[in-house]
Amino acid sequence: xxxxxxxxLSGGQKQRVAIAGVLAMGPRCMVLDEPTAMLDPVGRxxxxxxxxxxxxxxxxxxxxxxxxxxEAAQAQRxxxxxxxxxxxxxxPAQVFQDVEGxxxxxLEVPEPVALLYELRRAGxxxxxxxxxxxxxxxxxxxxxx
Length: 145
Description:
- This protein is an alpha+beta fold.
- It has helices at residues 11-23, 41-58, 69-72, 92-95, 99-104, 111-121, 133-144; strands at 29-33, 61-65, 78-82, 85-90.
- It contains 7 helices and 4 strands, in the order αβαβαββαααα.
- A hairpin with a 2-residue loop joins strand 3 (78-82) and strand 4.
- The longest helix has 18 residues, at 41-58.
- The protein is elongated.
């Protein structure tokens, strides 16, 4: 069967083709600058799944540059830069603890962290280390049980 012409591919498909082109060169490390920019949610998820698979199945080091904090939350290590300097460096759960500091830098935290932060400000003693909706829901279920 005929393959679709490149200009008919979705944004996510085009990004995956671009990543495949780089992979054909056999790198041990890839640096991706905003690979999900301009993609719809489905395209974003396709690209992020492909990147995650490369790391998990092939052991490839992937440096992902993003302004999407939900994407950053999936990393093993998070480095926050401001005006060319490293201002935070650590595991996402650790870095996202400093909600106010990140906001001063013009960055938001993942939605689950923001929710827990607001509940904490309202007087509930909650940790800020739930980075996904599922983890946040489990934490709140335990609190209400």
